[in-house]
């Protein structure tokens, strides 16, 4: 399934990344635009990566369509919110046959929410355009 980002860029909805890639992507999202030099330094400190490993991960995330590296400056093609929204939608579609009520019912089993959280959910539903 293809989507359009907030910037108007087209992207594919089934981008999959691992935990470490997700942590690395988070660094880019929070600090973009960011140079590959800074990413190498941060990845060395945080993950113990060598320069080549960092460049490999940057390249892989760019090939997946999350980011773009232009002249050593990395920026996102898909925002963090767009990415996690897309992942959530895919999870509900794949696990609960697209049924949001089934997902919420499964989530609520054994979990309690506060009155404030319930009110926020009601506000979100009320704001939705149907």
Describe the structure using short key phrases.
alpha+beta; Arc Repressor Mutant, subunit A; elongated; 6 helices
Summarize the entry for a quick read.
By secondary structure, this protein is α+β, with helices and mostly antiparallel strands. The protein has helices at 19-31, 36-47, 51-63, 80-96, 100-108, 115-127, and strands at residues 2-4, 10-12, 34-35, 67-70, 73-76. It has a domain at 2-80: Winged helix-like DNA-binding domain superfamily/Winged helix DNA-binding domain (Arc Repressor Mutant, subunit A, Orthogonal Bundle), CATH 1.10.10.
Helicity level? 55-70%
User: How many β strands by DSSP?
Assistant: 5
- Beta content comes to 5-15%
Tell me the strand order in the biggest sheet: 3-5-4
Uncertain segments are none
Q: Architecture of the domain at 2-80, CATH level 2?
A: Orthogonal Bundle
- End-to-end distance, in Å? 21 Å
Mean pLDDT: 88
What CATH calls the topology of the domain at 2-80 is: Arc Repressor Mutant, subunit A
Shape: elongated
Output the number of helix runs. 6
Q: What value does the Rg take, in angstroms? A: 18 Å
CATH class of the domain at 2-80: Mainly Alpha
Q: H/E order of the elements?
A: EEHEHHEEHHH
Name the CATH superfamily classification of the domain at 2-80: Winged helix-like DNA-binding domain superfamily/Winged helix DNA-binding domain
**Secondary-structure-derived class:** alpha+beta
Largest sheet geometry? 3 strands, antiparallel
């Amino acid at each position: 399934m293809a989507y359009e980002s907030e910037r108007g860029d087209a992207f594919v909805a089934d981008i999959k990344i691992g935990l470490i890639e997700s942590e690395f992507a988070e660094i880019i999202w929070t600090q973009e635009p960011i140079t590959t030099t800074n990413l190498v330094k941060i990845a060395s400190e945080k993950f113990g990566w060598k320069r080549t490993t960092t460049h490999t991960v940057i390249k892989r995330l760019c090939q997946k369509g999350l980011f773009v590296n232009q002249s050593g400056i990395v920026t996102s093609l898909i925002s963090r919110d767009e990415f996690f929204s897309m992942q959530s939608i895919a999870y509900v579609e794949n696990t609960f046959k697209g049924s949001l009520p089934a997902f919420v019912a499964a989530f609520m089993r054994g979990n309690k929410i506060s009155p404030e959280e319930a009110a926020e959910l009601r506000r979100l539903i009320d704001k939705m355009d149907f």
